[in-house]
Amino acid sequence: MTLPRRKLVIVGASSFAEVACELFDAAGHYEVVGFAVHDAFRNEDVLIGRPVHALETVTASCPPADCEAFVALTYGELNRARTRLCAEMKAKGYALARYISPAAAVWRNVQIGENCFVFENNVIQPFCHLGANVILWSGNHIGHHSRIEDNVFIASHVVVSGHVTIGRNSFLGVNSTVADTVTVAEDSWIGPNALITKDTERGGMYRADPTVKADVGSLRFFRVKSGP
Predict the structure, then answer these.
(1) Which fold has domain 6-91?
(2) Taking Cα atoms as reference points, which of 41, 57, 43, 44 lies closest to residue 9?
(3) What percentage of the chain carries pLDDT values higher than 70?
């Protein structure tokens, strides 16, 4: 027997909100009935065929007794903006939904909190814990016994090794790597391609060396003659 789809309002009107709408709809568990943003930021009435409500009055159009909510913001203010909106929606009485892609490999004993979004091709190994309001963009590896605390954003193709802790509000950029047993302190910003082999400090920013142009050109290095 097919269960009826639950109604969902998505908070936000960004590209992430559009992607979240598409994936929630495709998964078949939710019917996205609209978007909601604060009235000061409401620049359109309709987004991808669905109404955009003022957040201040959304309960009238999408009552929390009938709808759940998902807050689709990225890592602005080190995830604080998303965190504040989660608290605002809960105060209005909404339960916060979560999305786990059917194309993600999530082991059966992994714990995942509310307002989490796990994109395709993530691998989350046994005994991991994801707190509330965690975004895992596509293609990450979360190693066994690791703990991702609340309000974290992990971009694509990140490797979190085994027995790692990622502290609250942190951001991990594309292709970054965290070695075994390391603790990434809360409010850490880990840049693209960074390799973290030791515990970080709270509020620290960690960047890989910037890419620089080599003195020798590619054609000369590979001994390519002129022409095709």
Answers:
(1) Rossmann fold (3.40.50)
(2) 57
(3) 97
